[in-house]
């Protein structure tokens, strides 16, 4: 029989996990306790924490969630999250994983009116089925994609030769005379972060509430040796920057910024050319992941797309959910 436990702070969760979601035990960045805690502290500061643990025999399920009000929960994720999923410990077989998910869904049904999970990928079908069997009215909708490059043993020259002609032409034209100096570093310091902020403040991007989250991510990954931070400079002034991480043969592209005043010179594109070359020829990664979002420029660099899904769950015991449930179902039907 499954046993459930709720946690309201990461100070409670860490002793219960005893290092089992630390870097050494967890290959995926987005499943780690450090990721969730940092996201909570910097992007959802002041909001309560809700973490559910379900145990059966030696197997465990962990759901990292975020209450938006007394009766509604969401996945603890935002635009920095490439994926969110239920986390299993103890290597349970698929049938036991399903049992744990259903136990979690029944527990949540007794306490909450509405839950949404996004961005989901491989676990979406099983999550949907488990919540439906537990009594939720659940709807799955495709919502955006995750763009990937499977390197397939190519060197950068081979990869680059297969890029669209307009991209190769742009890099060739804009790179004449080497207008920018490219710098790629694996170590963060205060001076480099000041340069990053300089570019970010002049970027086309709006100011982000999570800039402190990026700083903590960069510091943590720098200490682990997985950070790849790139700069394009003109006359020693930073005009474009990117934050990547490289770990377990996978490169993750977390953030791009460039000084809007240099748009016509395409420093961001030229920096991407240098970053991809470094990831493929120096780090020798097998996969490059551009993260969520169907920005048109990603198709020029990447070759594969994985569909992301949002699952909305409505508790039919609460009349207040009936209308939003109907609207969500119609939205899923019409796309």
TrEMBL record:
Residue ranges occupied by any BioF2-like acetyltransferase domain in the UniProt entry: 167-299
Superkingdom in the source lineage: Bacteria
Protein name per its UniProtKB record: CelD-like protein
Species the sequence originates in: Sphingobium baderi
């Amino acid at each position: 029989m499954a046993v459930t436990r709720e946690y309201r702070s990461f100070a409670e969760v860490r002793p219960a996990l005893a290092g089992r979601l630390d870097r050494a035990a967890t290959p995926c960045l987005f499943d780690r306790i450090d990721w969730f805690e940092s996201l909570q502290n910097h992007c959802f500061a002041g909001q309560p924490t809700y973490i559910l643990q379900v145990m059966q025999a030696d197997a465990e399920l962990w759901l990292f969630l975020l209450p938006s009000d007394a009766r509604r929960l969401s996945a603890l994720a935002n635009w920095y999250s490439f994926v969110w999923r239920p986390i299993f410990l103890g290597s349970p077989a698929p049938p036991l994983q399903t049992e744990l998910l259903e136990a979690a869904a029944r527990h949540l049904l007794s306490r909450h009116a509405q839950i949404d999970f996004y961005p989901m990928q491989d676990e979406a079908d099983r999550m949907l089925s488990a919540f439906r069997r537990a009594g939720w009215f659940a709807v799955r909708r495709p919502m955006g994609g995750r763009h990937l490059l499977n390197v397939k043993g190519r060197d950068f020259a081979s990869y680059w030769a297969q890029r669209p002609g307009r991209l190769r032409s742009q890099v060739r034209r804009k790179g004449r005379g080497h207008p920018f100096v490219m710098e790629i570093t694996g170590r963060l310091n205060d001076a480099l972060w000041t340069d990053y902020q300089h570019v970010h403040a002049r970027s086309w991007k709006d100011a982000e509430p999570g800039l402190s989250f990026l700083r903590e991510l960069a510091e943590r990954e720098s200490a682990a040796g997985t950070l790849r931070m790139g700069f394009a400079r003109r006359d020693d002034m930073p005009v474009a920057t990117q934050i990547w991480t490289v770990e377990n043969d996978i490169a993750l592209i977390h953030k791009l910024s460039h000084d809007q005043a240099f748009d016509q010179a395409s420093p961001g594109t030229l920096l991407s050319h240098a970053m991809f070359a470094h990831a493929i020829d120096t780090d020798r990664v097998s996969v490059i992941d551009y993260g969520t979002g169907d920005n048109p420029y990603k198709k020029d660099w990447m070759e594969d797309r994985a569909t992301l899904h949002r699952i909305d769950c409505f508790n039919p015991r609460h009349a207040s959910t009936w209308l939003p449930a109907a609207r969500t179902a119609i939205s899923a039907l019409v796309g």
